[in-house]
Amino acid sequence: MSVAQVASSGSSASESAAEPEFLEGSEAIARAMISAGCRFFAGYPMTPFTEVLEAMAKHLPAQGGSCVNAESELEAVGMAWGAAATGTPAATGSTGQGLSLMQESLAEITYARLPLVVLNMARAQGDYFQATRGGGHGDYRHIVLAPKDVTEAVYLVQEAFHLAAIWRNPVLVMGDYYIAHTWQSVSTARIDFGPEPDRSWALDGATGGTGKAKLISPIADTKRGDDVGYDLAEFYGRRGAELDVMGREVQPRAETGFLEGADLVVVAYGTVAQYVREAVANLRADGAKVGYIRPITLYPFPTEVLRNAASSAKAFAVYENNRGQMIEDVMLSVMERADVRFIGGLSVDSSGFGIAPDLDVTSVRARIQTTLEEIS
Amino acid sequence: MTTRSLPIIESTSAPTQAAKLVDDFTPGLINQGAHHLCPGCGEPIAMRLIMEAVEELELAQKTIAIFGIGCYTAYSNNLDVEVLQALHGRAPSLATGVKRSLPDSLVLTVQGDGDMVNEGLQEVLHTMARGESVTCFLLNNGVFGETGGHMTAATVLGQRTKNSLEGRTAQEHGYPIVISDLIARLDGAAYVARGAVNTHTNVARTKKMVKEALAVQTAGLGGSFVEILTMCPTGWFVDTLDAPDYLNDNIEPIHRFGVVLDRSDDSRHHGAGR
User: Per the database record, which ranges form the Thiamine pyrophosphate enzyme TPP-binding domain (chain B) (predicted)?
Assistant: First the structure.
């Protein structure tokens, strides 16, 4: 039985309606990608990314797309690179370990100015540096979006395709085990983010033999047609300037709560932030002067939001399910206007998948309370 | 396209007089015939015959050429077909993504033996095993030419390179991979051939192989693969004039000329993808 036949026997992504359906996060993300126009996907199984691949393999062929079960993450990202070069909305992904394998290509794809959506269905939050600094070589940046739950993931995954197309740049969406496997009632219908930019840069073969055949390369964007070759200094300078513009113009986003009169601001992202928000809300109800900031864009980082909060808050506490990575961006934003402390820590179960025993409102609240006492 | 007959020089004997320009014909799909590769390099000849085949089959406006990283990469700059530049080793995966997205295009890859057989062996094997309807070209000169002549997985036993100075030995360096024969064992491959550009006869034979491979792709029969043995006198530590014979005497006995697999008349064989 072909993959397409399997897809046609079940409900297909084309049926994604505005009506909410009860879906597992991975299935919802896959349907959202297809609703956003994704027509090429390649991946390699790895928990907790696996079910996204399963869902894409099931649904994409019926939409006229292609999902390739690649021989490794190296090839998955290469295939997505090729598809992206034809202007086909393309995506790949893995968990952090698999993304480590992809980093060389992700760097080159960025220099080559190709739109691509990359999912990191991460284990815990140890991949913040990989995501925001890039594990690859050279000067490059990816837009990084960090949803807190399935509903937001469905939205941000669709927006990722739009941002990738606008900026001709990879966009990384940070998921995790919880988002991959939580069942939630959600609509995966197409969201309109406005007009799509033209894709006249894409390859289709048609300019061959015209004297102006196109080139897509990480070291040049136009053939010189000579025997001298490319000017890498010129290209890297120009590409770097484009990346600077992207970093300035993409609107940083953060969710905030209880910042009014807060002495302590707790900063967290992703699933973890939901526990932090609940703990902060409980403390506020008890009269504690504590607020909350959740960066939604990890790059560009919502520096202004933190800087403004720093004008009145005495201290910041950063809660991450790792040994302290985003805290560097918090410190760079606050710039010594306030004290910055780390109250998180790596918390995984024996599987290492990021199912965190410390993710408990009582436990998070206790850490925040301790910090409040220390700064008072 | 115009063709002009050129005088044929017997390559096994040294010229008796200094070279003089008798013609400066450049194929239509190469913007600039001049190159900065070493004298005696076989790669420009290989690139030229691939481009001549594309032009003669009238496929230029469907072609997307995906380049690996090696000396031949310089040609990405002056071919008049669309080019997608890959990382070292990764061209066949990019080709898979391109072909799956544009099933009617002609997708070809150009890699050297370091690129394909060392860095990216897994890529070409899986691409051919799946039977992607793409054509992979290997320019095999038995060395990493661009770094200055270092041993690859295709370097034959006894061959001297900069990191096997006394010659490759099985005990110290292991055995070479004879890639075309390996690929011919894969069910997804439809056409596999090995040619060379060291004599005018071999150039003509190899061009037929290239055209056959491209025809197999356009017929959607599965993966097609042509290995082209090219001279690298610099990396082989031999005189430019001796390189064609060095290829015959040292490389061809291991990487044998000829069509290794041909399923072009098996209409039941078909490629992967749409």
Answer: 69-215
| Phi and psi torsions of A12, nearest 5° | -115, 165
- Closest-CA residue of A relative to B132 is A68
Per-residue confidence at A12, pLDDT binned at 50, 70, 90? very low
CB B63 within 8 A of CB B106: yes
User: What average pLDDT score do residues A204-225 get?
Assistant: 94
How many C-beta atoms surround the C-beta of residue B156 within 10 A? Answer: 17
Q: Which range has the worst mean pLDDT, B16-25, B141-150, B243-252? A: B16-25
Residue A65 lies in a domain: yes
How large is the ipTM?
0.93
Domain count of chain A? 2
Q: Are residues A293 and A175 in the same domain?
A: no
Last residue of a domain, one of A186, A202, A218: A186
Q: What's the rounded Cα separation, in Å, for the pair B258 and B243? A: 20
Q: Tell me how far CA of residue A190 lies from CA of A8, A147, A289, B90, B154, in angstroms.
A: 20, 18, 41, 33, 51
Residue that has been written with the tokens 């089959």 in this structure: B57
Residue B13, pLDDT above cutoff 60: yes
Neighbours of A137 (CB within 10 A): 11
CB contact under 8 A, A225 and B77: yes
From chain A, the residues in CB contact with B61 under 8 A are 205-210
Regarding whether A168 and A55 lie in a shared domain, the answer is yes
What is the C-alpha to C-alpha distance for residues A169 and A166, in angstroms, rounded to an integer?
A: 8
Measured between CB atoms, which of B31, B82, B122 is closest to A203? B82
- Look at the pTM and tell me if it is higher than 0.90: yes
Which of A186, A212, A246 is where one domain is finished?
Answer: A186
Looking up tokens 């295709």 gives B154
Average pLDDT, chain A: 93
Encode pLDDT of B225-254 as tens digits. Answer: 999 999 999 999 999 999 999 999 999 999
Chain A, nearest residue to B104 by Cα: A204
CB A320 within 8 A of CB A288: no
Interface size, chain A vs chain B, as Cβ–Cβ contacts under 8 Å: 175
Range of the domain at A353: 254-375
For residue A276, the surrounding DSSP H or E stretch is helix A271-285
Nearest to A267 by CA among A276, A258, A278, A279: A276
Q: Which residue of A has its CA nearest to B32?
A: A226
Mutation for testing the A interface, residue in B66, B93, B122 having most A CBs under 10 Å: B93
> Exposure string (b/e) for B13-44, b if CB count within 10 Å is 16 or more?
eeeeeeeeeeeeeebbbbbbeebebbebbbbb
Q: Name which of B34, B84, B98 is nearest A227 (Cβ-Cβ).
A: B34
Bridge partners (DSSP) listed for residue B136: B109, B225
What fold, for B43-262?
A: Rossmann fold (3.40.50)
Asked if residue A123 belongs to a domain, the reply is yes
CB < 8 Å to B78, chain A: 223-227
Cross-chain Cβ contact A78/B105 below 8 Å: no
